[in-house]
Amino acid sequence: TLTLAVGTHTVQVKAIFSNPNGAVCNDTTTSAPVSIVVDPLPAASIQVGSTTYTSGDTLTVSGSGSVAETFNATSSTSGNTYSWELYNPGSTSPDATGTGSSFNHTFSSTGVYTLILISQNGACEERDTLFIDVTLTTALAGGAGSFKVMPNPSSGSFRVEAPAAGQYELYVMDVAGHVVYR
Q: Which of 89, 90, 91 lies closest to 107, judged by CA?
């Protein structure tokens, strides 16, 4: 068993063994040299702004209509290469991909997205995951343009912000336009 530091190492093997009678045998034959390259671990993380996230963390973002984010790969190890995979809520294959030390994406729908940073250094690969919880507000149409519904559309609970204190009528409709609550 060898413990080798990062770098290139040359190893030769010589057999020493005990025979059944207890005598130690030293074989005079040594193996041909074998070169072993030990690559550094990528040791990378996903960074947004000045915050570095641990794999499995959740980033919460919100905006009106859409929100753009820039994700950066950060590492103390040099020589890494990076690729990115972004999965929309419920997707089993990436909906957006990229390469390089940064990845930009504009989110236009509410939901929890999965971003995977794949860092490589030689033969070593590391994957870091960041969940992005996106909440977008959408203004209601017509004369009540300053009303906000979050999230819209919604398959569960939602929040309505009125422009000012007062009495209002609220209609909740399904995707076909049928009133399901008034």
A: 89
